[in-house]
Amino acid sequence: MKQSSYSVRKDGNKIVVKTTGTQQVDSVMAIRERIIKIASKSPQSLDVLVISRGVGTPNMSAIQAALQGLLELPFRRLAVAGETPHRLESARLVLQGGNDRERLKVFRSEEDARAWLDEGWPVKRSPSKKPKNTL
Questions:
Q1: Looking at per-residue confidence, does 127 or 89 come out higher?
Q2: Which residues fall within 8 angstroms of residue 1, CB to CB, at 6 or more apart?
Q3: In terms of Cα–Cα distance, which of 28, 51, 23 is closest to 107?
Q4: Rounded to an integer, what distance in angstroms lies between the CA atom of residue 70 and that of residue 11?
Q5: d(CA 18, CA 73)
Q6: Of all residues in the chain, what percent are helix, strand and coil, respectively (each to 5)?
Q7: How far, in Å, CA of 81 to CA of 49, rounded?
Q8: Which residues, listed in sequence order, are joined to residue 46 by a DSSP beta bridge?
Q9: DSSP strand pairing (75-82 vs 104-107)
Q10: In what helix (H) or strand (E) does residue 53 lie, and over which residues does it extend?
Q11: Which of the four, 7, 8, 70, 93, has the lowest number of CB atoms within 10 Å?
Q12: Adjacent-strand bridge partners of 82
């Protein structure tokens, strides 16, 4: 089994999540909590960019965990950039379950994902889009 890791950091108007390897449910939930913590300190809605590398066979439990909390996250747009067919397919599965497809897209390259996220700034957070700390 490949070793997996992740990092979550704020970069301007984005929260950048970098993952390596196949993420498990506990790491997906930790990533989600870190996004909420960062977003709660921002006066505006942020974009989320997920960059995945070296992903093996997707963990379906982790995909379901991501799906359950995805649309409750405090973001303006979410882009997933992945180099592997498994990662892109996993991201598509997650996004197909959501009702907010205009805010969610999958890209093959990080550059394309960043370009899409950079469209339409600046954006102010509306009062109804405040972060939720509950599942």
A1: 89
A2: 22, 56
A3: 51
A4: 20
A5: 17
A6: 40, 25, 35
A7: 8
A8: 75
A9: parallel
A10: strand 46-53
A11: 7
A12: 52
Maximum separation of any 2 CA atoms in the chain, in Å: 44
Identify the pLDDT of residue 100. Answer: 59
Compute the distance between CA of residue 83 and CA of residue 55 in angstroms, rounded to an integer: 9
Which stretch of DSSP H or E encloses residue 11?
strand 5-11
**Rounded Cα–Cα distance for residues 35 and 29 (Å):** 10
The model carries a pTM of 0.74
More confident residue, 94 or 1: 94
* 101 token code pair: 């497809």
Nearest to 71 by CA among 40, 42, 102: 102
**Inter-helix orientation angle 25-40/60-70, to 10°:** 20
4, 20 Cβ separation under 8 angstroms: yes
Phi-psi region of 126 (alpha: psi -120 to 50; beta: other; left: phi over 0): beta
User: Which of 17 and 64 is assigned the larger pLDDT?
Assistant: 17
> How distant, in Å, are the alpha carbons of 46, 49, 54, 102 from that of 13?
5, 10, 26, 18
Residue with token string 């892109």 = 88
Radius of gyration, CA atoms only, the chain: 14
